[in-house]
Design a protein that fits this description.
By secondary structure, the protein is mainly alpha-helical. Helices cover about 85% and strands about 0% of the residues.
């Protein structure tokens, strides 16, 4: 007979320890087995961002600043699209838990349509807006906008194959077959690195395009990974001959739109931070890009665990087993504490050496100093960042996406942005003030999402 969360809590520390050893750790092992390839794939996504930043550093501070400025603006519509793809994984997992595995193919078919339409529209809008001179309206340093324009357009169009790939990836992960997506993601990283040298620096007779070459390399790499995963055996077929149903489109959008807004609210503040920090000079903007790249690379691990939690909680939700959900959630939160706590300790201790891995080109000591300060703040909120992202993933598995979207808006736009702007411009803390504001948002998000999660699980108000 399973040892329940309620009976464990009633027995005090000894009961909770027994609960962890006998119930939570076995569930955590299952989640980690699923999360491992997912997290590695997320690291691949973050690694593409880091590689482009590091290679842009060879072109100088302006290139780093331009990559950060245009990249963070383009990533907003891209992340909104990723949110729209969430429903594929959640509905597939819930269907499996309820004994209806065929729901996965149906969810995939409708998710691909939503992602495809959105990818075309967002790519076209980015192209038109950039060519109309929209980037010049943000008051960036001289030379940054000119270098950023072509890069932004190419990155915008690369969202289309990336979103279609994400739908296929979500489906395979939800049916317990994540390794094919990881293999093609890894291939995409290698292709992107090679093509960066070809298109950015003119290797092997390629055009010497500078920063725009990084955008072209990403577009080609993402297209190759999409085709590769689509033809790779082992996934569910979307069965196009079955047509489309409004109910399934609505189910995809009911899960996807709040998730899309949540991720956009979160990342939107970081995009605004790029613009605000750019007003303090290219040194602080380049330093900000280094700190964001480093934070994103580590953040991909708990993001992968969060996605695995969504799938496993979704299966338990479909099976209507609240005790299984409690064990899964306890495991992923424990993982977040251990991993992100260790990351924070390492980064804060060796931040000087880590920063200099990114600043290999013609960068100043002032830029390195700013980057070290920003990275120290990243280390300070890393633990809470891990807790909020895995809690969000667990809530998503329960189809509780509206609350996470509202809390993201409040934490990042009502708390973070005013606090950061006040500290930066009124107190005179400049870039450090912006980063303190970001930290405040993450602290608040970790608190409210975990309270929501345990309130639902503790009171049984899930179904």
């Amino acid at each position: 007979m399973k040892f329940s969360w309620v009976s464990a809590s009633a027995k005090g520390p000894v009961g909770l320890f027994y609960f962890l050893v006998k119930e939570v750790f076995p569930e955590l092992r299952k989640t980690v087995r699923l999360a491992f390839p997912i997290a590695l794939g997320q690291c691949g996504v973050g690694l593409l961002f880091v590689i482009d930043t590091a290679m842009a550093g060879r072109l100088g501070e302006i290139a780093i600043a331009a990559a950060g400025f245009s990249g963070m603006l383009v990533v907003l519509p891209f992340l909104f699209g990723l949110g729209l793809c969430v429903g594929v994984a959640v509905l597939t997992a819930q269907g499996r838990g309820a004994g209806r595995p065929e729901h996965g193919a149906t969810a995939l078919r409708h998710g691909l349509v939503v992602a495809g339409v959105y990818g075309v529209v967002s790519g076209a809008l980015i192209h038109v807006c950039v060519r109309a001179g929209a980037l010049a309206c943000f008051g960036q340093a001289e030379g940054v906008v000119e270098m950023a324009e072509d890069f932004a357009i190419l990155m915008g169009w690369s969202s289309l194959p990336a979103l279609l790939f994400q739908c296929l990836k979500n489906n395979r992960e939800a049916i317990g077959r994540p390794w094919a997506a990881l293999c093609w993601m890894s291939a995409g990283v290698v292709i992107n690195v090679v093509l960066n040298f070809v298109f950015m620096f003119g290797w092997l007779g390629g055009p010497k395009m500078g920063l725009a070459g990084a955008g072209l390399a990403t577009l080609v790499a993402r297209s190759v990974t999409l085709v590769g995963l689509a033809v790779h055996p082992g996934g569910q077929m979307p069965r196009w001959r079955d047509g489309f149903q409004c109910k399934w489109l609505m189910d995809i959008l009911k899960l996807g739109i709040p998730s899309a807004f949540q991720w956009t609210f979160e990342t939107g503040v970081f995009a605004v931070a790029v613009v605000l920090i750019g007003r303090f000079g290219k040194e602080q903007q380049a330093a900000h890009q280094v700190a964001v790249s480093l934070a994103n690379l580590a953040f991909m691990i708990p993001v992968g665990v969060s996605q695995a939690a969504s799938i496993r909680v979704g299966e338990a939700f479909g099976a209507r087993s609240i005790e299984a959900m409690r064990r899964i959630v306890a495991g992923v939160l424990l993982f977040a504490v251990v991993f992100m706590g260790s990351y924070a300790l390492v980064v804060s201790t060796f931040r000087g050496r880590v920063v200099r891995l990114f600043l290999t080109g013609e960068t100043s000591a002032m830029t390195a100093g700013f980057a070290e300060n920003f990275v120290l703040i990243v280390a300070a909120f890393a633990l809470f960042d891990g807790l909020q992202v895995v809690a969000s993933g667990a809530l998503r598995g329960m189809s509780d996406v509206r609350f996470t979207s509202i809390s993201a808006f409040v934490c990042y736009w009502i708390i973070s942005l005013p606090v950061g702007a006040f500290l930066a411009f009124q107190v005179g803390m400049e870039g450090i003030g912006i980063w303190v504001g970001l930290a405040c948002a993450i602290f608040a998000a970790a608190f409210v999402l975990n309270v929501r999660l345990w309130w639902k699980l503790g009171r049984g108000r899930v179904f």
